[in-house]
Fold:
Amino acid sequence: MFNIALPKGRLADKVCKLLTAIGFDTSEVTDDNRKLVFVDDKNGVSYFLVKPSDVAIYVERGAADIGVVGKDILLEYKPDVYELLDLNIGKCRVAVAAKNNFRENKERPLRVATKFVHIASEYYSSLNREIEIIKLNGSIELAPILNLSDVIVDLVETGTTLKENNMSVICEILPISARLIANKSSYKFKAEKIDALVSRLAEVIK
Ligand code: PRP
Structure:
């Protein structure tokens, strides 16, 4: 069996479409029930649906041979995996955002709410700007609204969440898209199978 870790949530359907396009059977893969492992006997593949931020851990440790993960996760956690292909889906950016009427006070450290502690720290240190990180795990946009932070560093896709909360992007830090990653020893021992999969995927995303 060949194990593939897939991200739950908004990327799942798009990844399944890509896998279907190269002949894999992902018809059973759905978030709608509590099932966690889906087997495609015909292709000798089994899929796991996990939290997007956990995909890289499964792949790094070899519980999955390959996986699909956002570039944001790769940049934040720097897992020891091979990044094989930009899948051209899940396109968004990591950006700094704040309330529409925000004025920065440069006399004190900037309070930054984010789940991307490393990306945010690296960005502000490149600007020589002193910050205080407030690590959150979701609904980051709430932080400036409740004055928990001055700004946020978060993913922006359509911009709807910011708009609906009277916030806007101050600066875009990184462009993001979903990447195919592989466990290093799986790639060594199953190189032919993985390379074939990469070529077929590269064809359909052209
Ligand atoms: C992500 C991100 C933003 C939102 C951006 O959150 O953290 O909140 O999507 O998307 P938009 O620009 O299309 O509105 P997600 O929905 O993954 O959940 P979270 O808030 O729990 O992190």
About this structure: The chain is about 30% helix and 30% strand. Residues 9 and 53 are 11 Å apart (CA to CA). The radius of gyration is 19 Å.
